[in-house]
UniProtKB/TrEMBL annotation:
BP-aspect Gene Ontology terms: cell division; regulation of division septum assembly
Keywords annotated in UniProt: Cell cycle, Cell division
Function: Prevents the cell division inhibition by proteins MinC and MinD at internal division sites while permitting inhibition at polar sites. This ensures cell division at the proper site by restricting the formation of a division septum at the midpoint of the long axis of the cell.
Family: Belongs to the MinE family.
Source species: Pseudoalteromonas prydzensis
Gene Ontology terms, MF aspect: identical protein binding
InterPro entries: MinE, MinE_sf
Coiled coil: none
Official protein name in the record: Cell division topological specificity factor
Organism phylogeny: Bacteria, Pseudomonadati, Pseudomonadota, Gammaproteobacteria, Alteromonadales
């Protein structure tokens, strides 16, 4: 019976699929927005200072 239920199940329409995908993209972009842009440069500066005093 489960095989028949698979074929009878309602399929999502394209609008709801597009909405769901857009919500995922927006959530991902919002989570990335909070990270500061200066962190990679700060990391490099810290490593440069450490290299100045310690052999790495």
């Amino acid at each position: 019976m489960s095989l028949l239920d698979y074929f009878r199940s309602e399929k999502k329409n394209t609008a709801s699929l597009a909405k769901e995908r857009l919500q995922i993209i927006v959530a991902h972009e919002r989570s990335q927005r909070g990270t500061p842009d200066y962190l990679p440069q700060l990391k490099q500066d810290i490593l440069d200072v450490i290299r100045k005093y310690v052999n790495i």
